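Please check this today:
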Amino acid sequence: MPLSTASSKDLYLQSSMQANIICHTSPTILPPTCPRHDGIPAGRALVAARQVPRAISISTLEGRPSGVPLVAEVEEDRVAAFWDYQFLFVSQRSEAIEPVTLRVVDGAVPTDFPLGTYYLIGPGLFADDHGSTVHPLDGHGYLRGFTFGGSPKSKEVRFTARYVRTEAQAEEHDTASDTWRFTHRGPFSVLKGGRKVGNTKVMKNVANTSVVKWGGKLLCLWEGGDPYEIELGSLNTVGKLEMINGRGEPERCGAGDVWDIAASLLKPILYGVFKMPAKRMLSHYKVDARKERLLTLSCNAEDMLLPRSNFTFYEFDSNFELLQKKEFNIPDHLMIHDWAFTDTHYILFGNHIKLDIPGSISAVCGISPMISALSVDPSRSTSPIYLLPRSGDESPEGRDWRSAIEVPAQLWLLHFGNAFENVDEEEGTREIRLQACVCSYEWFNFHKLFGYNWQSGKLDPSIMNVKQDGKALLPHLVQVSIDIDTEGDCRKCSVEPLNNWTRPTDFPVINPDFSGMKNKYIYGGTTSGARLALPHFPFDSVVKLDLSDKSSSTWTTGNRRFIGEPIFVPKGTGEDDGYILVVEYAVSIQRCYIVILNPKRIGEADALVARLEVPKELNFPLGFHGFWDADSRPVHTL
């Protein structure tokens, strides 16, 4: 962020010193059961306490002026905002191997809070001990568990945290010296202290994107590889679980084409040289609560480079037995991160991409990240939606699933909240409603996700806080309405802001028992807009949208505090019977809290039920996605 005035320089000195003091009030010393992972040997701990540790954040804080008097906290200054944003991505090398009981600092854990564990996965490490930094999406997976237990009259929350021992993590972490050296490039990073030219270790499966428990197995997933199984309780890594490769041939929908020849030429290079799996499992899964099925999706490795896409869907029962496997060949160059389902369809909202030749050359040469080989393709003014049949070869009305339904807007889909169908049995018509988070092609950029600059190793918050000037550039919630006639043709497709809510918002969630069904409520992470220097992101609020009356209400955290993805914990049969869990990141004091909200009271002064503090030495960076695990919980039925 450029600083050009004398006042900005003064604020830089003040904020720099303040940031230094905030992060080093005491050495990071844990109980014997929690070994150090901050890369500082025990003999240097006291010295390191007076310095800025290498793992403090993605950005390096070396060379900043010292000896400047500490001044009062600067709230809306863009320099303070810059460092607050860096502190949201603070590396945490330590693990909580033995459960730590969290201290309640506000309210109390409700006596009727369900027993279970909230798992949260995300990156834990961004800098090694040899000068390299990585993009948040390439950071090693750090699994956090918040277990709600205790007696009915005295509930407690116990915290554990472990790194996922992936193949890349085992190679890059020296357990003897407790130091790190990055050797895998990953898709979004360029190593400074590692090998660049000829480094084919691109598929760095860090298992850092999502987490699910299914069929007695706890799994951490990544965007492009097999998940890693985690031992329940201890959070030890069991190993990689082959869910999709080697499961037999899928039921194929769609004929082969000329691109199959090109694919056959690419496969030996991608599979043999770059060690890519034949099918890349995506990180987002779906749980069909009514049918008690886990749904997952994969794509072919070679399709990243070809103007066609092969997607394979898998359905597992509660014992992890594969019930169905269907593959669809779509003649379009698409990137899919998230997707949706209904009783009768898998739903893909296509994000158009294209091969970037100059970017591919620089990526192969190690000059830029491998993701430089791709770029968004804004050549079309509409967005395709594919309704793919869950059973049989055709959709219920006999419509050709190869024919995309075009949304009359150019939108890049980030996350789905829900999808459902209303069927008129008498008329033979069908209404499909999709609730999702989208952004514009104009804003979305593979090279600038989270504002990461691979050349400087810093994060630029201005990328996430651009002026929209009346345009819906940033992530926001929409509803796509599709009406299908008796012949299976689309008679109407429209898109509009969900509940007319236009603030930047992401991580849409609902009561998971209502997935695939018509829902009344949807929740998300959003912004109050109160901080002028960070008006849009990171989020500081939870929004609840009532789709029946188009109303909206919010709960906002404290000053200089941010939140991650909210998650709904059901405890009854009503759609908003339960609680909202969300992690609060108090970056100015380097603390994390688990917050319990009453969803029925969001918008009121008493929405906050409880806030529990994670010990400072276990403060962790922003998590991505979570999962609530409650055994023997009744499933809602219509």
